[in-house]
Amino acid sequence: MKEIQIGLIGFGTVGTGVVKILIEQEGLLRSLVGAPMKLKRIADLDLKRDRGITIPKGLLVNRADDILNDPDISIVIELIGGLEPARTLILKALGKGKHVVTANKALLAHKGDEIFQKAFDRKLDIGFEASVCGGIPVILALQQGLVANDIESILGIFNGTSNYILTRMTEEGLPYSQALKEAQQKGYAEADPTLDVEGMDTVHKLTILMHLAYGSPLNPETVFVEGITRVGALDIEFAREFGYSIKLLAICRKEGDLLEARVHPTMIPKTHMLTSVQGAYNALYIKGDSVGDVLLYGKGAGMMPTGSAVVSDLVNMGRNINKGVAQRIPQDLSRKSFKEKGLAFKPFAEVLTRYYFRFSALDRPGVLSTIAGILGANQISVASVIQKGRETEGSVPIVIMTHEARESSVHKAIQKIDRLPVITDRTMIIRVEN
Ligand SMILES: NC(=O)c1ccc[n+]([C@@H]2O[C@H](COP(=O)([O-])OP(=O)(O)OC[C@H]3O[C@@H](n4cnc5c(N)ncnc54)[C@H](OP(=O)(O)O)[C@@H]3O)[C@@H](O)[C@H]2O)c1
């Protein structure tokens, strides 16, 4: 069989993993595809950096155009990250009739519709297994294994950095800032961790999964987001007292025709399977109407796990090229919009859930009853209270767990409580899932 020629743009962490697998597993890949998978060219801005692997001389160039303009290259891998120039490079590759593999979740979440449409128009494939939860084959699960199901919910830990930080805060009682520093020293967090700890990376991944489960358009703005930066060691301690752990969860639910999508720190029971997902690991709980619960667990990032996902896309594409087929599996399955399917997003204000509130209040008589009064007036019923004399900077924490309440009522009540003269800091709100 004629060899399948591949061009890689971006020889960084994931790119290096991909090159390693392509070199070390050359024989295996050839037998899986039925033709040699040949890495023809790599483009990166830095031609000198030592990546710890030996590649043939002349393979590495610093112009992505050398790949895009090569008529023999049929698959382009984009691993540079970010919106631009990644978007332009991918659209150019598709314009030149090349299939594309990418791990770029930010780009797909924001510009995926444009990219998928162009691939569809040109009868080409886009592989994006590595864009969600690194080495865990979740795209494959939604595009193939679970297609017989109406997806009722997706619940998951999609961000290893945040999960590592929360794990260390739980294990060692570390404050957030110290756990973050440790994550950075160990290479689990970037120098600028904003996308991870503020939840946007998780939103990007959830957006892509919802696109597969429910249709287009891809729109990260439909997902409510709150990061982990305000979670304190005190919250972790109180959660433990209530029998919960705190995780940054992606939550998506379909109830009737309404979709609910949110990302925020969440209390889950200590006995919940997601509680045992520790450190930089990821996990997804998917519920389908026929299959029931499916749990996927593994490494959501890193050179080799993410490289493994990219190469799985390459093998699929290689097989398709060999058989002369493309778009055997459409990117969004039915190519229908939410609207065409009769689905709509539930406004976040309408979401019903249980809540944990940590109020910081002056230690004065009557404070608890004032707070309880405001909650009651907003139809928020209290399930349990902890008030201990743990004074922090002149105030004491008052912790309340509620029964199910509406987000809009909580918003109103907390705004009112936070304006009380006895309240010394913004109330900490953590949503609770059972
Ligand atoms: N790292 C992970 O574990 C992981 C997991 C899942 C998904 N992803 C996704 O995978 C993608 C790559 O991530 P990464 O961690 O491998 O990033 P990375 O280590 O920063 O690698 C990106 C590489 O692309 C190069 N580059 C930047 N602009 C370029 C251009 N215009 N032309 C050619 N090369 C260019 C960079 O060179 P310079 O360094 O010289 O700028 C760098 O070597 C991202 O979309 C990321 O979200 C990563």
Approximate shape: elongated
Beta strands, count: 18
Give the termini separation. 54 Å
Count of runs of 4 or more consecutive helical residues:
14
* Stretches with pLDDT under 50, minimum 5 residues: none
Whole-number average pLDDT?
95
Bound molecules: NADP nicotinamide-adenine-dinucleotide phosphate
| Major β-sheet profile | 12 strands, mixed
Please give a structural write-up.
It is built from 14 helices and 18 strands. It has 434 residues and is an alpha/beta fold. The strands form two sheets. Strands 7, 8, 9, 10, 11, 12, 13, 14, 15, 16, 17 and 18 form a twelve-stranded mixed sheet that branches. Helix 1 (13-24) packs across helix 12, helix 5 (105-121) packs parallel to helix 10 (200-214) and helix 7 (160-172) packs across helix 8 (176-185). The longest helix is centred in the last third of the chain and has 21 residues, at 303-323. The model has no long low-confidence stretch (mean pLDDT 95). The structure holds NADP nicotinamide-adenine-dinucleotide phosphate. Residues 9-15, 43-46, 64, 79-81, 85, 103-105, 130, 134, 301-302, 306 line the site of NADP nicotinamide-adenine-dinucleotide phosphate (NAP).
Q: Keyphrases for this structure?
A:
single chain, 434 residues, alpha/beta, twelve-stranded mixed β-sheet, 36% helix, 26% strand, elongated, binds NADP nicotinamide-adenine-dinucleotide phosphate
